[in-house]
Amino acid sequence: MENTKDLRLAVLIDADNIPYRLISGILEEVAKYGSPTFKRIYADWTKPHVAGWKTVLLDHAITPVQQYSYTTGKNSSDSAMIIDAMDILYTGRVDGFCIVSSDSDFTRLATRLREAGMKVFGMGEQKTPGAFRAACDKFIYIEILMQEEALPKPARQKETAKKEKILNKADKPFVNLLTGSINDLADENGWAFLGDLGNLLLKKRPDFDPRNYGYAKLLPLIKSLPGFEIDERDTGRKHVKLVYIRAKQPA
User: Fold this and answer.
1) Could you tell me which residues come within 8 angstroms of residue 99 by beta carbon, excluding any fewer than 6 positions away?
2) Partners of 121 in the beta sheet?
3) Which residues of 183-204 are buried (b: 16+ CB within 10 A; e: fewer)?
């Protein structure tokens, strides 16, 4: 997603269902979209299953929020996160929120924040219910971050499609989505600008990410598929080209 400015983001983390070892990857991902103005994490810190988080909070300047579990079988951190999110919204000091959780209980929160003009980024497991994913402007699977965390640092900057676990297949429904999106944007010759295509795919599918298919960027993903033409046009500036895509015309 392209941003016209550096967004001020409130990062709210549900510690109950996010592994603490991913915090560096989470914050690196957040940095792609803006600067974290608030960083808060929610849990019942008396419980042993969140003990690992205590070792990383200070290093990343994350404020822990205590929420006691008054009932069994219910994540009590949800209500605290929701109340804090609304309080932060009304301060007027942020442009967006990053909700790090796989819990569908945050669907209405994400919807309400977007109604207020906020950008909403979600992060969670692939099993996150579709309603929460659809309620966000963009949703990132933490399985991607797990893969990157396991790689040696130099290898993270290389194309590792063959080695990485593929979260989604470029199947017929995806190809149809891609083709339809190109047609929605196409000029009279059928060409669509790659940047506009990426933005439209994200609007149609907030959980769309080329990394889910094993590619770092959209262009290599499209190049891996039959049925599409690519036109890289010179701009007169060194190393700067405009890339256009169209579906191959029948012979």
Assistant:
1) 12, 14, 81, 85, 106, 109, 110, 120, 121, 122, 123, 136
2) 98, 138
3) eebbeeebbbbbebbbebbbee
Q: What global pTM score does this model have?
A: 0.85
In what side-by-side order are the strands of the sheet with 119-124?
Answer: 63-66, 34-43, 7-14, 96-100, 119-124, 138-141
Q: What is the pLDDT of residues 9-34, one digit of tens each?
A: 999 999 988 999 999 999 999 999 99
Per DSSP bridges, beta strands 241-247 and 192-193 are: antiparallel
Residues 226, 247: Cα–Cα separation, whole Å: 9
Between helix 107-115 and helix 77-91 the angle, nearest 10°, is 10
